[in-house]
Amino acid sequence: MKLLTTSFLFLSVGISGCVSNQAIYADYGDLACGQTTTVVEGHYWPTVVNFDFDTKSLDKAQQRELDKAAQLLIMNPTLNIAVIGSADYSGKTGYNDKLAKARAVVVARYLEQQGVSSHRIITLGTGSREPFIISNNKTENRVNRRTQLILLGADFNPVSMQYNSVASHSSAK
């Protein structure tokens, strides 16, 4: 009986074998974490420009933020940018789609006026389909009326931003 149990144990281990943990990971190629990641250090990058209700124009404060983005892009000619416009839930879907795209285009044109080549800028509009919050409050919905600025590498994949210290962030302003 002991021989039969031992034989059964070895047989079951032999049949099941050992599984490599590599078999459970997919190969994402260049998109895999830690591979071909562009890192930009020590510069301030404005990630969002918000808009007032039903507007697509930039005020002076927004222009100053975009000036910082333009400066970083000009200093790093291999970097690119995606400008993604959005709207809140007010209005019809078709109108929000046009408004969101118009916001992205306004930001892109401003960056071009500051010296960033148009071939380095991608514009998209998401309408009201990608809200940060869901609210009927006009004031709270300001976060949904925005353009997102996504810094891209030469391969048009998102770039990782790393700040050396708080001092380098404040001195970039």
UniProtKB/TrEMBL annotation:
<dbReference type="GO" id="GO:0009279">
    <property type="term" value="C:cell outer membrane"/>
</dbReference>
<dbReference type="InterPro" id="IPR036737">
    <property type="entry name" value="OmpA-like_sf"/>
</dbReference>
<protein>
    <submittedName>
        <fullName>OmpA family protein</fullName>
    </submittedName>
</protein>
<dbReference type="Pfam" id="PF00691">
    <property type="entry name" value="OmpA"/>
</dbReference>
<feature type="domain" description="OmpA-like">
    <location>
        <begin position="35"/>
        <end position="155"/>
    </location>
</feature>
<keyword id="KW-0998">Cell outer membrane</keyword>
<keyword id="KW-0472">Membrane</keyword>
<keyword id="KW-0449">Lipoprotein</keyword>
<dbReference type="InterPro" id="IPR006664">
    <property type="entry name" value="OMP_bac"/>
</dbReference>
<dbReference type="InterPro" id="IPR006665">
    <property type="entry name" value="OmpA-like"/>
</dbReference>
<dbReference type="InterPro" id="IPR050330">
    <property type="entry name" value="Bact_OuterMem_StrucFunc"/>
</dbReference>
